[in-house]
Amino acid sequence: MKQRDKLPSLLLLPFPPDPSDRHLLGAAYRPSLVAALSRLKSPTAAARLTVAVPCPILHGPYLRSKTLSWPHAQALVAGIYAIVAVVCSQLSIATEVNGGPGSVDTTVVLIDHDRNKRFSSDFRPSIEPNNTVVVDLATFASAYHPWNLIFHVSNELGTQLHQAYLRFAEGKQTLLQEQLVPVEGGLTMNVAKPGPSASPPQTTGRATVCLGGTFDYLHPGHKLLLTAGALLLQVPRKDSGESCRYIIGITGEELLKNKMYAEYVQSWDERARNVISFLSQILQLSDRGWKDAAPAAPVEEKDGDFQASFRNGTIRVQCVRIQDPFGPTITVADIDALVVSGETRSGGRAVNDRRTEQGWRALEVFEVDVLDAEEVSDEATKTESFASKISSSAIRQQRAQANLQAK
């Protein structure tokens, strides 16, 4: 194995179709994802892939005062993770973090980029974060490196993006020609809207965001939930002395002892470390790239309470062990938003009922989309059976069966 094979690879996808519904996303991105995932699948090693999707999703005239439409942003992330999950299922590629040989650990990252923006000849890219977790292409190129392979779509839009990225990334990594891999692009449709175009309603960032889950064998469904929560954060200026908080409740082992194949449930510590490691790929910014891929300060690990800081302390991530359906939502008063999935929607209502009983203000609840196979696959794949294939229970079952076969 080459030393660089241990590095993550990058897939640069061109601008999404407009509108970005699941069928159009599949038509646009599926061929490229199939090519990249197929290339990275190895019978002897695990691989990692970052899928970067540029889109002008941020609005606002100043670097520090950006806003985004959370429903549109999380729907785009959900659509791409759904395609990844379907493709990996069909290619027999494991999707979980630390999945072992044959797995591809894929992370979707949104990039704020305007194809019409022009840069002066003396422009020097640098890390310029704004008040959201989404960064522009120049910042991404400055902070995310080095790569094993860089996949780019071989059509006009894909080539333009690839060239812009390479310009911004100049000097960050010496790339061989064999590391630049063109892949097939799909069909991208943009439907002209009648009348003047208007940006969708913007979502104000929140100082403290909370969500919960088991996060056992971290997979695309978990990654979508964690990314969607991060997109809600209002990130303070680095010189403000303030920080936003991202509180993640992770179910304790006691509540999981009756799960299917409970003996294969990962320890709470391992699940918490995987959550923080995944979020570091979205939140950490350093011109040293992967050399500083860990949090800026070591993770503070206490029993049932892991904490890490990112972006000069402006983002604070806290993983806490929960032993009931409510967790920190009924012990911490100053939470602003709760992120739920379709499966935990009723839990969000129960949380607000309890907070009201305690005389606290109700949390604003944000619901993420589901990873629906029927919306991105041409095959007659039942969503229910598809969901079961990418669940933590299915992964534990596979581990149990592999263990039996090895005996």
From TrEMBL:
Give one GO term, molecular function aspect.
dephospho-CoA kinase activity
Q: Gene3D superfamilies of this UniProt entry?
A: HUPs
Which InterPro entries would you find in this protein's record? Answer: Rossmann-like_a/b/a_fold
Q: A GO biological process this protein is involved in?
A: coenzyme A biosynthetic process
* PANTHER family according to UniProt: BIFUNCTIONAL COENZYME A SYNTHASE-RELATED (PTHR10695:SF46), DEPHOSPHO-COA KINASE-RELATED (PTHR10695)
Name by which UniProt lists this protein: Pantetheine-phosphate adenylyltransferase family protein
State the taxonomy lineage: Eukaryota, Fungi, Dikarya, Ascomycota, Pezizomycotina
